[in-house]
Write a structure and sequence with these properties.
Blueprint: H1 2-22, H2 31-52, H3 56-92, H4 98-129, H5 132-149
Length: 156
């Protein structure tokens, strides 16, 4: 009885997870749109760096760090897509066990955490390069830009 409940829970979780994986994530359904959005965001961020950081050499270093972050995001999207493909293939396998699904999900979560850690490292590298005022100016400009793209939240 206990095993049947665990198996039923695993099946339900798998169905929910596969349903979530089947829909497009982020802005747009295709990777072409995502790639274009990342490139537009990189161009805007580079402009903001140039406005916030007056020293051209420091601005160049800051833009290189921003590029590292974008490259990591691109790799993360690619790896996530690869994990989804593995899950789709496993889902098609009638003989697949819950352990096989959990192995892929664990790998995906570990990779996601490793990527987030790398991005966080880049963030602190950028912060250590900039002065307090440069950081403030840059993050305020980024917040203003982000607000143009994010849906408005309704007041409570």
């Amino acid at each position: 009885m206990k095993t049947a409940k665990l198996l039923m829970l695993a099946v339900m979780m798998t169905a929910l997870m596969l349903g979530a994986c089947a829909r497009p994530h982020g802005y747009g359904a295709g990777s072409g749109y995502r790639e274009a959005a990342l490139e537009r965001g990189l161009a805007e961020t580079n402009e903001q760096v140039d406005r916030a950081v007056k020293d051209p050499e420091k601005a160049k270093q800051a833009k290189a760090i921003v590029q590292d972050i974008v490259n990591e995001v691109k790799q993360s999207f690619k790896k996530t897509s690869d994990y989804h493909q593995k899950l789709y293939a496993l889902n098609a396998n009638y003989e697949a066990t819950p352990e096989q699904f959990m192995k892929i999900l664990d790998e995906q979560n570990n990779e996601r955490m490793a990527s987030a850690t790398r991005i966080l490292g880049f963030r602190f590298k950028l912060k250590s390069l900039l002065t307090v005022q440069e950081w403030k100016d840059l993050t305020e400009a980024m917040d203003k830009t982000r607000s143009r793209y994010m849906p408005k939240r309704e007041s409570m």
